């Protein structure tokens, strides 16, 4: 028997159950992993609460992990037992000691990257990659507003945006998080709890606004974010930490400067193995070059997933967080 975290109904962290599961043998095109580190991400909360409902319950949870291949199913020819691999696009169920997963969902981990780093950066790092290189291709000299700048995606994005030659304005919710954002290279930091971020952005940009806003907060910041954009600016809403964004009329975008609005997800940009490999390779290269430093800020036992979710939702975590299987 192996241990995994599952939930039988939607709700708060307390619905997560750490229990015995049967893992079985990998079928054609699949592999069995002994997982060494598991990524904790806010999308896990959306799955647990039912904001992003599952096809059936009970369900596993988690989209990201690193591990060692311990068994290979028929038809898998490019991977071997003992290979270190990681994944960040699911399928759901990464909160587990062992699991079976399609072989085309994993990426070989370079020797220069540790398992803990890989597990903490695949989803967040590939999310950053598609946001700043493909959803809106950031250019040298662009001014960027990035909400939740001390979070997992934000911590990676600030560093990468610096490497691209952008000026980064970041929002945070505390002085502690402001220090983190500053250390990562954020040029201008706004504490949204004590400052009006719209007014501050206008001051910083001399009233012109920013080229692009990246907003994972959702409901609480969405309309203000639109007011931070320059004419023909791009609004990228990619999360719902404060709740889903309310419906808006398209004419609002016209009235605020002919804005572009998009709501992407990792699945749209890394839906094929080729796309995922290209994204992960760009991420690994950025980390290896020193442009991005991946630091695991919090670590919990897999059996303590309930506490990890409580801390995540209470905004007590910063940067990357992992869960460690006990085996």
Automatic annotation (TrEMBL):
Superkingdom of this protein's organism:
Bacteria
Domain Enoyl reductase (ER) intervals: 11-323
Alphabetic keyword roster: NADP, Oxidoreductase
Sorted alphabetically, which InterPro entries does this protein's record hold? ADH-like_C, ADH-like_N, ER, GroES-like_sf, NAD(P)-bd_dom_sf, QOR-like
Query: One of this protein's Pfam families, by short name?
Result: ADH_zinc_N
- Transmembrane segment boundaries: none
CDD domains, per database record? QOR2
**Name used for this protein in its record:** Quinone oxidoreductase family protein
Please name the taxonomic classification of the source.
Bacteria, Pseudomonadati, Pseudomonadota, Alphaproteobacteria, Rhodospirillales
């Amino acid at each position: 028997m192996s241990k995994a975290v599952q939930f039988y109904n939607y709700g708060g962290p307390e619905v997560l159950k750490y229990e015995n599961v049967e893992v079985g043998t990998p079928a054609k095109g699949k592999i069995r992993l002994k997982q060494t580190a598991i990524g904790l991400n806010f999308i896990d909360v959306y799955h647990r609460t039912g904001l992003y409902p599952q096809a059936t319950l009970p369900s596993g949870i988690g989209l990201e992990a690193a591990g060692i291949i311990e068994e290979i199913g028929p038809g898998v020819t490019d991977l071997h037992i003992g290979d270190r691999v990681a994944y960040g696009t699911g399928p759901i169920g990464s909160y587990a000691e062992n699991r079976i997963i399609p072989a085309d969902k994993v990426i070989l981990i370079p020797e220069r990257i540790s398992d803990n780093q890989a597990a903490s950066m695949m989803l967040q790092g590939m999310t950053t990659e598609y946001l700043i290189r493909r959803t809106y291709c950031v250019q040298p000299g662009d001014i960027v507003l990035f909400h939740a700048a001390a979070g997992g995606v934000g911590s990676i994005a600030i560093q990468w945006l610096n490497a691209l030659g952008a000026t980064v304005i970041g929002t945070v919710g505390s002085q502690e998080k402001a220090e983190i954002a500053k250390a990562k290279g954020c040029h201008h930091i706004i504490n949204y709890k004590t400052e009006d971020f719209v007014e501050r952005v206008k001051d910083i940009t001399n009233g012109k606004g920013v080229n692009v806003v990246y907003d994972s907060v959702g409901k609480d910041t969405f309309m203000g974010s639109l007011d931070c954009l320059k004419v023909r600016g791009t609004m990228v809403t990619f999360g719902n930490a404060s709740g889903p964004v309310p419906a808006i009329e398209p004419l609002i975008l016209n009235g605020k400067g002919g804005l572009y609005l998009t709501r992407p997800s990792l699945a749209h940009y890394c839906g094929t193995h080729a796309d995922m490999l290209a994204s992960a390779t760009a991420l690994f290269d950025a980390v290896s070059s020193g442009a991005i430093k991946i630091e695991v800020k919090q670590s919990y036992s897999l059996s303590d997933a309930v506490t990890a979710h409580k801390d995540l939702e209470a905004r007590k975590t910063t940067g990357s967080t992992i869960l460690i299987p006990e085996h």
